[in-house]
Amino acid sequence: MRSVIPDYLTEALDDVRPDTSGERAGYIPELATADPERLGAVFATLEGAVYGAGDIDTEFTIQSISKPFTYALALADRGFAPVLAKVGVEPSGEAFNEISLEPSTGRPLNPMINAGAITTHSLAGVEGLAPDQRVERVVDGLSAFAGRRLSIDEAVCASEMEHAHRNLAIAYMLRSHGILTEDPRAVVDGYVRQCSVLVTARDLAMMAVTLANRGVNPLSGVQVVPAPVVRQVLSVMATCGMYDAAGDWATQVGIPAKSGVAGGLIGALPGQIGIATFSPRLDPHGNSVRGVSLFERFSSDMGLHVM
Ligand code: DON
């Protein structure tokens, strides 16, 4: 088994490698300098075995893959009702950076789009934390999911903040509706720091398998968040994790998933496996082109589609 799986993964990587379509995320200038040829894939099992091929120890920023994990921290820290009062669970069918708010309440439609994720960032940690302490809570929580100490890429963070006009606009809208109750700029700054946490494909597979394992990291044995929180998070990943490509993903791959604009992609299959891929070129939805192809193949080869 130990050599069969890496061989399978190597073959899968070789098959998608010629596809150079898509673009690196240009709206965060620092991400546009990433090596576009990087490619890796990792499987992590509930027993703690990790199998990988390609660039599995290259660091890149987590970006939107932080969203389900920060949602989990907010639910665990504040409880379901206060979080659900501020962020819905309905797919938006719109791009990740749309101002998808419920017209009457201003509540973001779900925690996977930027509007919802900026809000959930503000709900991580106990009430009343200073912005820096909240970032610390988030980095600690993401680190517990990964099972190792993670850090922030300051260059990517600064680069995104310089061009964060859209996220700032969203945050000011949220503040005007009373969904955010603090200085919108400080919340966006914290959210961008959260997105700038450095991970490898190996880390992401461990984070994904922790979700697949009902919140327990298989290597550290730590229960990072309670099982009911994980059920909520996986449900929202299944319906909203791939933004306006969520329907295509559900039919073609059928695994709760989340993508990030640095090229990471995770899938978590409850009770079975955590999967992560890394390839920086993105499709128009902001999802990794080769990552999506790899997941389609894994799902079909191994019968992972849950529907
Ligand atoms: O807020 C943003 O636009 C980025 N920090 C994260 C967006 C992202 O990763 C979208 N996912 N594919």
UniProtKB/TrEMBL annotation:
Keywords recorded for this protein, A-Z: Acetylation, Hydrolase
Binding site for substrate: 64, 114, 160, 167, 191, 243, 261
Class in the EC hierarchy, top level: hydrolase
Cytoplasm is among the record's keywords: no
EC number of this enzyme: 3.5.1.2
Molecular function in Gene Ontology: glutaminase activity
One GO BP: glutamate biosynthetic process
Catalytic activity: L-glutamine + H2O = L-glutamate + NH4(+)
Subunit structure: Homotetramer.
Similarity annotation: Belongs to the glutaminase family.
Protein name from the UniProt record: Glutaminase
UniProt organism field: Aeromicrobium chenweiae
Lineage: Bacteria, Bacillati, Actinomycetota, Actinomycetes, Propionibacteriales
Full-protein residues shown: 1 to 307 of 436
